[in-house]
Write a structure and sequence with these properties.
It contains eight helices and ten strands. The protein starts with a helix and ends in a 6-residue tail after the last helix. The chain is α+β, with helices and mostly antiparallel strands.
Length: 218
């Protein structure tokens, strides 16, 4: 019931089954945001932010570098073959030279793929390497808990509005995305539809804000 109420208020697309039909029926909301299922890709996102990696390669094909990272960090990585082929990009012929030590896996990927005009998205529990254009245009919805950033009482609505205005200032924000807020029944969340790079920046920005909130004393 709560999820359906959220769907009506902030535009989550829910898929349900009509009692008289086998066809799925989407909730009727304006400008719906498709949210990823709970836990989808979380193992990969945790590895990207938490794992440290050391890479030392000279003119090694990108495919070999990816195979090494995949084997060492234990999650699936695949190439978006059709999109890369359409863009005349052959990852077996993209040489990589890199020498980094104890760097976050996310930063390593950004360095390696960025200079090749590539990016990645996380779909179906795999990290999909694709063109930078495809990565920036692929939007996914996520829910962010901001209850500790929102005061109780009359100032709550103003605080949510300020947050919703502030977040789109992250550098990689795609104007095709959207942000909606929900502040009812003690729940304060932002529902944000954005590309993977923008979500990284949003997570970092919110983590900084969360850290600034004074801790309650026992």
């Amino acid at each position: 019931m709560l999820l359906r109420f959220l769907a009506v208020v902030i535009g989550i697309t829910l898929t349900t089954t009509n009692a008289w039909s086998d066809e799925p029926v989407a909730s009727q909301v304006q400008n719906p945001i498709q949210i990823e299922r709970p836990g989808a890709g979380q193992k990969i996102r945790d590895a990207l932010t938490d794992d440290k990696t050391t890479l030392a390669f000279v003119e090694i094909p990108l495919t070999d570098v990816v195979a090494y990272v995949k084997d060492r960090h234990h999650f699936e990585i695949v190439f978006d073959t059709n999109v890369l082929s359409h863009a005349s990009i052959d990852p077996t012929k993209l040489p990589v030279s890199i020498n980094i030590h104890d760097l976050s896996l996310q930063s390593a990927f950004n360095l390696i793929l960025g200079e090749k005009e590539l990016g990645y998205v996380i779909q179906n529990d795999v990290l999909l390497i694709t063109t930078k254009e495809k990565a920036k245009s692929t939007l996914v919805g996520r829910i962010y808990d901001v209850h500790d950033l929102v005061p109780n009482g009359a100032d709550a609505s103003k605080a949510m509005s300020e947050l919703a205005d502030f977040i789109p200032n992250v550098p990689s924000w795609n104007s095709s995305g959207s942000i909606k807020s929900f502040n009812r029944m003690g729940i304060s969340v932002l529902l944000i539809s954005q590309n993977a790079e923008a979500h990284e920046e949003i997570e970092y920005t919110l983590s900084v804000l969360h850290a600034l909130v004074p801790q309650k004393t026992q």
